[in-house]
Amino acid sequence: MRVLSWVYLAAAYAFVFLPVVVLVAFSFQDGRLPVPPFQGVTLDWYAAVLGDRDLVAALVNSAMVATVSSLVALVLGFLAAHALARVRLPGTMLLRGMLIAPMTVSYLIIALGLLALFNQMGVRLSLWTAGIGHVVINLPLCFAISYAAMGDHQKSAERAARDLGAPEWKVLFLVSAPMLAAPLAAAFFLSVTFSWDEFIIAFLLTRFDVTLPVEIWSMLKSGLSPATNAVGSLVFLVSVTLVVVLEIFVFRRVK
């Protein structure tokens, strides 16, 4: 039974990571196509990618959209979680359900709905509209993590701060938020990870300035090449780095 467990675990890891290994390996292909046989190792494709102005601009756009949208989603999610956890409101369960509902909706439906809304309002598609879309999909995650982390021990600290004369905004940002630093950091990094490689919303809600996944899709229209593998490897590297940083500085500290 133990052997079968190890075999199953190895098969699961191979199923998940084998495509990534192939992607990274053929990003070093010394040839025009990322297909067998392997013709040698070269860094020319990475040099070409990093020297491509459009790709670098798209990478910067992705980083900006991911960071700003995640910060906005984190603040809004934290404020909503604090309000619903600390104040008794009519229909609290319904409000919680409405905030979490976007997690159950397809990104395509969300993007089409926002696209119709922006068209009706006459809003020009840009990185800002894509950022709004990413706030919509990341706010439920930030709310859920923040709400789950709020406990009774924080209520006592907040009550003590109010008794000492602290205004409500100081209680919120100097007492409540620091006590939830680890869960809030986890919510932020996860939001950045999801926003970093999100394609559907970024594709439908941008026009001239695009994010990196959209730029990669444009490259794929002209066919496969080791350059697309190199870009994919860089995207994977950034995502893995964020997860490792999250594990080292947040989850391990919580444990």
UniProtKB/TrEMBL annotation:
TM segment ranges: 7-28, 63-85, 97-119, 125-150, 171-196, 230-251
Keyword presence, Protein biosynthesis: no
InterPro entries: Bact_Polyamine_Transport, MetI-like, MetI-like_sf
Coarse class of the protein's main subcellular location: membrane
Membrane topology recorded in Swiss-Prot or TrEMBL: Multi-pass membrane protein
Gene3D superfamilies: MetI-like (1.10.3720.10)
Domain ABC transmembrane type-1: 59-246
Signal peptide start and end residues: none
SUPFAM superfamilies the UniProt entry points to: MetI-like (SSF161098)
Family per record: Belongs to the binding-protein-dependent transport system permease family. CysTW subfamily.
Protein name, UniProt field: ABC transporter permease subunit
Source organism of this protein record: Paragemmobacter amnigenus
